[in-house]
From TrEMBL, chain A:
Source taxonomy: Bacteria, Pseudomonadati, Pseudomonadota, Gammaproteobacteria, Pseudomonadales
InterPro entries for this protein: Amidase, Amidase_CS, Amidase_dom, AS_sf
Residue ranges annotated for the Amidase domain, each copy included: 25-433
Listed name of the protein: Amidase
Gene3D superfamilies reported in the protein's UniProt record: Amidase signature (AS) domain
Organism in which the protein naturally occurs: Pseudomonas typographi
TrEMBL record, chain B:
Protein name per Swiss-Prot or TrEMBL: Uncharacterized protein
Domain of life from the UniProt record: Bacteria
């Protein structure tokens, strides 16, 4: 019997392993649902056809021979369309890459395939994972499955939409300033940005090389952990297997991210305060942690992001400017206005802020901060320059390269999800996932799904 | 922070010098974004510990 569309990856995995459902049946169900919902939600840049069923049949045959490769065996996943999959176009939602079909998989894709996963397709993003969503010739705009008139977040937008809508149980995306965590929060699913060294980025198109990280989006913390486990490299403790914490962690609150010019709205604040009370009820100590205001993090983060993005795109900006969408073209040009001195000062500020964060993290195990101001805005409310005008809650932990997890912590008055982010200690992915798992079990927000 | 007209003029000239002569479509918004970014770089400059140290004497110079 085919699992429900919103069944967790872990549940589907058990069903396939125990042959209560075949990988072919499950993949077909994902394909059917994705095809039905794609016109409404725009999650896929490329949705593979029936050819993918041949991969699923191979997965079933291997299980029949007793060759089970692990929890991802026979599981259909999606890949953000800035990450190469051999034989499928990588368009990055840009005319610059028109006609590009990679011959090799990205490192992370190879890793997922080796674990038995099946790639169902490439998932919508924003052009080169930057800027606002744009309707155009290079792919659809992903729409929030809780209300398609609303933003799905970015830039791993298709990943969050496909997972929230039950098209797929999990996806691989990238995160430069919150691009896994923000769409996950706005769509009511879980986004996990591990430390950068955990998942090599070969074969993934960069946005800002010193900030970029790869990671999973899934419907719950356990599913994220299962995908992460297949991807992650040492150093540090082995990938997480045990999701129950040995003892309640010490929780810190990044209170300066709530105040001092923060765009956090009342409903978002209330949901996070309620989550802090849940952690306290689970036996955690909860205390405020002093951090610099968002403005400091964002100034350093944006100068680094724009400088590095410009460096990567400089040649094409000079020779093929017409092959960028207008919004990305103009955003990248801003990078040309920055000087070497600006970049060096941003790196210096990054070092100073990260040292402050390092010191703060000695006193707690997990830090809690907002990840979005509130519920998803309507698509027409988005501003081309919003990335400069509204501080990002996410970029601080790209600057510091801390593992960070976003998850649902309630719903707002429009019926749209509210999210928060949990930040772990360096190489502390396991205890971070444990904290997220404990919260999720206590609140069960992850069991709510959009009606589609 | 430079005034709008001054910023617009500088941007036209600077982008042309860089071989980036395609003017942003919504130029006014671009100039405002540039001014916003300038406020960030000014903020970083104020926070910077890298400061110009003038030579104390002709010998030091």
């Amino acid at each position: 019997m085919t699992p429900e569309p919103q069944a967790s990856l872990a549940q589907v995995s058990r069903a396939i392993r125990e042959r209560r459902c075949s990988a072919v049946e499950y993949t077909q169900a994902c394909l059917d649902r994705a095809s039905r919902l794609q016109p409404q939600l725009g999650a896929f840049a490329t949705l593979r056809g029936d050819a993918v069923l041949a991969s699923a049949a191979l997965a079933d045959a291997a299980i029949a021979r007793g060759e089970w490769r692990g929890p991802l065996h026979g599981i259909a996943l999606g890949i953000k369309d800035v990450i190469d999959v051999a034989g499928l176009p990588t368009l990055a939602q840009s005319r610059q890459l028109r006609g590009y079909v990679p011959e090799r998989n990205a490192w992370a894709v190879d890793r997922l395939l080796a674990a038995g996963a099946i790639v169902l397709g490439k998932l919508t993003t924003h052009e080169f994972a930057f800027g606002p969503p744009v309707v155009g010739e290079c792919g659809p705009v992903a729409r929030n499955p809780w209300n398609p008139r609303h933003f799905a977040g970015g830039s791993s937008s298709g990943a969050a939409v496909a997972v929230a809508a039950g098209m797929l149980p999990g996806a691989l995306g990238s995160d430069t300033a919150g691009s896994l965590r923000s769409p996950a929060a706005l769509c009511g699913v879980v986004g996990f940005k591990p430390s950068r060294a955990r998942i090599p980025r070969h074969g993934a198109w960069p946005l800002a090389d010193s900030l970029d990280a790869l990671g999973p989006i899934a419907r719950n913390v356990e599913d994220c952990a299962l995908i992460y486990q297949a991807l992650a490299l040492p150093p540090g403790p082995p990938p997480p297997l045990a999701l129950r914490w040995p003892k309640p962690p010490r929780i810190g609150v990044a209170r300066s991210f709530f105040n001092q010019g923060s765009p956090l709205q009342a409903q978002g604040r209330e949901a996070i305060e309620a989550a802090l009370a849940v952690f306290a009820g689970l036996g955690c100590s909860v205390s405020d942690v002093p951090l610099a205001p968002l403005r400091d993090w964002n100034a350093a983060g944006m100068v680094i992001l724009l400088s590095e993005a410009y460096a990567f795109h400089q040649h094409w900006l000079r020779t093929r400017p017409q092959d960028y969408g207008q919004a990305l073209h103009d955003a990248l040009l801003l990078g040309a206005t920055l000087s070497a001195a600006d970049y060096v000062r941003a790196l210096e500020q990054r070092q100073r802020l990260t040292a402050q964060l390092d010191a703060a993290m000695h006193t707690v195990d997990v830090l809690i901060a907002p990840i979005q101001a509130g519920q998803a805005p309507r698509l027409e409310q988005l501003n081309e320059w919003g990335f400069l005008e509204t501080p990002s809650f996410g970029i601080a932990f790209n600057l510091g390269d801390y593992p960070a997890l976003s998850l649902c912590c309630g719903f707002g008055d429009l019926g749209l999800p509210l999210g928060m982010q949990l930040v772990g200690r360096r190489t502390g992915e396991q205890s971070l996932l444990q904290a997220g798992y404990a919260y999720e079990q206590a609140c069960a927000w992850h069991l709510r799904h959009p009606s589609l | 922070m430079p005034e709008y007209d001054e910023a617009a003029q500088w941007l036209h000239e600077h982008l042309a010098r860089q071989g980036l002569g395609v003017v942003p479509a919504r130029f006014e918004g671009f100039v405002l974004a540039y001014q916003h970014l300038q406020a960030m770089t000014e903020h970083l400059r104020q926070r910077s510990q890298i400061a110009v140290q003038p030579a104390a004497s002709a010998d030091d110079a």
